[in-house]
Design brief:
- A hairpin with a 5-residue loop joins strand 2 (26-33) and strand 3 (39-43).
- The chain is globular.
- The chain has one domain (3-67): Alpha-Beta Plaits (2-Layer Sandwich), CATH 3.30.70.20.
- The chain has 68 residues and is an alpha+beta fold.
- The strands form two sheets. Strands 1-4 form a two-stranded antiparallel ribbon.
- It starts with a strand and ends with a strand.
- It contains two helices and four strands, in the order E-H-E-E-H-E.
- 15% of the residues lie in helices and 31% in strands.
- Bound molecules: iron/sulfur cluster (SF4) (2 copies).
- Residues 6, 11-17, 28, 41, 58-59, 61, 63-64 line the site of one iron/sulfur cluster.
Length: 68
Amino acid sequence: MGKVTFKKELCKGCGLCVDACPKKILAVSKTESNNKGYFIAECLDAEKCIGCAFCATMCPDCVITVEK
Ligand code: SF4
Ligand code: SF4
């Protein structure tokens, strides 16, 4: 079980974390954007997160923090 949080103002919506997640629970939002105008990554099903941190490792902008 893990918990992911996003520093949403740093996200540029590139989707690399989405592809990296083995549980397929991340997505780039179609509605929520940050102050820079990028649609942001979000977790769709927090219950399924296994805390592997693949998403955080993949993110080029250090947006994601994973707690176990
Ligand atoms: S920690 Fe792992 S399971 Fe959880 S959102 Fe990131 S890549 Fe997916
Ligand atoms: S990899 Fe980082 S910058 Fe790219 S969508 Fe995911 S959280 Fe945002």
